[in-house]
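As promised in the previous annual report, we have extended the structural survey to additional targets. Below is the entry for MerR family DNA-binding transcriptional regulator.
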Amino acid sequence: MPRPETGHRFDDDDYPAYTVGAAAEMVGATPSFLRALGQARLIEPLRSEGGHRRYSRYQLKLAARARELVDEGTPIESACRIIILEDQLEEALRINEELRAADPPS
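The corresponding structure token record, generated without further manual editing, is:
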């Protein structure tokens, strides 16, 4: 019997693979810190069928950055706003680079 293809999930940064406990441990924070990031709308965990929070690697990357900023004394709401702006800038730069590569100067 063929096995379901699950290998792609390991490569997917957006796949919600981590429970709140595992995510908190990986980030070096508490589950309440992760919930606070959700309340500040930095990350919104997906829910398992049982209603448990699940986090992706991408969300953990953002949470780890938030933890760095908070550890440096930045209020959590400000840290979340900084990270959102950093993420938007990174995306804009990526799109700009793609557009430049697609339409080289003559």
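The CA atoms of residues 70 and 104 lie 42 Å apart. The mean pLDDT is 88. These points will be discussed at the next consortium meeting with the crystallography subgroup.
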